[in-house]
Amino acid sequence: EVQLQIGEPLRQKNFTIRVADLTGKIILQRYERAGGNLTLYLDASQLTPGLYLITIVTDDGLVETQKWVKQ
């Protein structure tokens, strides 16, 4: 399970969370509406160990990407 802390500015917007492998293939995708929880959980049990990119894209075009390593 991946635990994501969502900051206040993002919490005020609708956004999509994508988890992709290093080839760019989207493994997980989830849409969240504004005003949700500050902590989100993604089920990563089906992912193999390795490096992934977690990208958050808001409806108004803001993009934030972070690397994540599943062990």
Short characterization:
It contains 1 helix and 6 strands; from the N terminus they run E-H-E-E-E-E-E. It has one helix spanning 8-11, and strands at residues 2-5, 15-20, 26-32, 39-42, 50-58, 63-70.
Descriptive report:
The protein is mostly beta strands and 71 residues long. The chain is 6% helix and 54% strand. It has one helix at 8-11; strands spanning 2-5, 15-20, 26-32, 39-42, 50-58, 63-70. The strands form 2 sheets. It has a 4-stranded antiparallel β-sheet with strand order 3-2-5-6, with no helix packed on it. Strands 1-4 form a two-stranded antiparallel sheet. A hairpin with a 5-residue loop joins strand 2 and strand 3. The longest helix has 4 residues, at 8-11. It starts with a strand and ends with a strand.
Strand order, sheet with most strands: 3-2-5-6
What is the CA-based Rg, rounded?
12 Å
**Helix and strand string, N-terminal first?**
EHEEEEE
Considering DSSP H and I runs of 4 or more, what fraction of the residues is helical? Answer: under 10%
Class of secondary structure makeup: mainly beta
The shape, in one word, is: globular
**Unreliable stretches, pLDDT < 50, 5 or more residues?**
none
- For the secondary structure, the number of strands is 6
Number of DSSP helical runs: 1
